[in-house]
Amino acid sequence: MSKIIVRGGRTLTGTVRVHGAKNSVLPILAASLLAEQGSSVIHDVPALDDVKNILQVLAALGVYAKHQDDSVRLNAESLTAYEAPYELVRKMRASFLVMGPLLARLGKVRISLPGGCAIGTRPIDQHLKGFEAMGAEIGFGQGSIEAKVNGKLRGARIYLDIASVGATENIMMAATTAVGTTVIENAAKEPEIVDLANYLNAMGARVRGAGTGVIRIEGVERLCAAEHQVIPDRVEAGTYMVAAAITGGDVYVEGAIRDHLGPIIAKLEEMGVQVDCDENGIRVCALKPLRAVDVKTLPYPGFPTDMQAQMMTLLLVADGTSIITETVFENRFMHVDELIKMGAEIKVDGRTAIVTGGVKLSGASVAATDLRAGAALICAALAADGSTEIGGIHHIERGYVSIVNKLADLGADIYRAPSPEEVLEESEKAALQPDKLMKQFEQRAAASAEVVIRNIQPTLA
Ligand SMILES: CC(=O)N[C@H]1[C@@H](OP(=O)(O)OP(=O)(O)OC[C@H]2O[C@@H](n3ccc(=O)[nH]c3=O)[C@H](O)[C@@H]2O)O[C@H](CO)[C@@H](O)[C@@H]1O
Ligand SMILES: C=C(OP(=O)(O)O)C(=O)O
Fold first, then answer.
1. For 3-19+232-417, CATH number?
2. Of 182, 216, 292, 397, which is most buried with the most CB atoms under 10 A?
3. Does the active-site annotation cover 117?
4. Which fold is adopted by the domain 22-229?
5. Residues in domain Enolpyruvate transferase (predicted)?
């Protein structure tokens, strides 16, 4: 199993650049299915496992897609397949976002039910309620869900019981070519919704009100390909802001947008972190002792649930006791047990966590249970005494491009120890003997070499 190894205690300084937002690019790539003519070009697409997955889903549906450097070119002119393959869908919940575009474009779609995940059950009833209101018939069978419509979808007024990000996106995409106008009430207001609406409008759609609680989509005849630049990832930015603060560092997060990070900036400032914003990014400087604060996650513009775990680690090093309330997902405290292994004092009662600050963290062997839990473990490890080995890093690699290199460039003592399988695969690619390649890894590992050798020696022997 590959691992990330961190030896804590280094102060982070310098500049880190934020990549395009995972949560924008996934719906935007799905929306490319709607283009009946031409090739879309999407810029600042992060090279993440989730992006690879959705591109495979699109390819299986008949879309030509090429990811080169930071851009993806997609052509969906010859789209015919309406079934997203189970093997790909099960890897990533966001595959469900192809449902709205396929229903709009082909009038039918079949997809496996996405199921729950570590952070909660994550039902899709609000997506389906929207499609049904627009005239789709929904059927279930053999773990799959099928939706079809006679002719075209029809515009409808849809009130979401929960301001769901995915449901807002799926319904918005489905409504672009419906007959008549669709109104989504209690719509999600996240910046990623606005980014998707901007792309859809560039394709010829008429979406108004994205970023507010009421979105109106006037159906048009057809959409064509368009060029689009994805917004910077606010969660990635927030994670580096926390990483800087937890090490008492001074870091400029290039590309971070102040308006997207309001609640994170507010909480950091309440804690005593100095935050300076300009048009190109945000500087975080944490020279003084930090104060405890309470945090409650909420849909945008509230404090993002995707930053809750990372924020918890920062509260561990603050003076005083903090209360964190998680209102978005019912099971998003999986990182707590791992943090306790590192010396944290946290008590969880339902959706509330009571965090005792000022406890000394020490390195341990821990495992990421989901993407942001993994990011939080890295933040905690940066502040801990000694060495932390983090497993389950495939979760982290779903959502952070080159996190190890970016933190190392800021001065962290961090290394990614490859799994034995990765070493063998790499050695085959590089036509090198595994032991020679291992030597290279050892050299790169420098401070953490002994851990790397421990990890890969058994299989190579
Ligand atoms: C790819 C992507 O963009 N992922 C983000 C998106 O996920 P996602 O779009 O899945 O999140 P939602 O906003 O839909 O979910 C919010 C809450 O609503 C519930 N719910 C949702 C839909 C539904 O039909 N019924 C229902 O009950 C969910 O279980 C959850 O408790 O928004 C979340 C909330 O900001 C983020 O944490 C995820 O990073
Ligand atoms: C929960 C997240 O993503 P997803 O919805 O893709 O699981 C996340 O980005 O933290």
1. 3.65.10.10
2. 182
3. yes
4. UDP-n-acetylglucosamine1-carboxyvinyl-transferase; Chain (3.65.10)
5. 7-407
Which mutation among 325, 328, 351, 371 tests ligand 1's pocket best, with the greatest number of atoms within 8 A of CB? Answer: 328
Domains 3-19+232-417 and 22-229 share a fold: yes
Q: Is the CB of 383 under 6 A from ligand 2?
A: no
3-state secondary structure of 181: strand
Alpha carbons 370 and 352: distance in angstroms, whole number: 19
What pLDDT digit, counting tens, does each position of 212-222 carry? 999 999 999 99
93-118 residue pLDDT tens = 899 999 999 999 999 999 988 766 78
Residue 221 gets the label, from left (phi > 0), alpha (psi -120 to 50) or beta, of: alpha
Integer Cα distance of 77 and 340 in angstroms: 52
Structure tokens at 70: 């930071």
Give the closest residue to 177 by CA, choosing from 227, 231, 106: 106
Is the CB of 297 within 6 Å of ligand 1? no
- Rounded to the nearest angstrom, the distance between the alpha carbon of 168 and the centre of ligand 2 is 16
Could you tell me the pLDDT band of residue 461, with boundaries at 50, 70 and 90?
very low
How far is residue 136 from each of residues 95, 114, 256, 436, measured CA to CA in Å?
Answer: 19, 19, 40, 59
Q: Which ligand number lies closest to the CA of residue 190?
A: 1
Strand order of the β-sheet with 83-84 is: 83-84, 108-112, 144-148, 137-141
pTM exceeding 0.90: yes
Instruction: Give the model's pLDDT for residue 419.
Output: 85
- Give residue limits of the domains in the chain: 3-19+232-417, 22-229
Task: Provide the token pair at 366.
Answer: 């821990």
Q: What does the pLDDT look like over 266-324, one tens digit per residue? A: 999 999 999 999 999 999 999 889 999 999 999 999 999 999 999 999 999 999 999 99
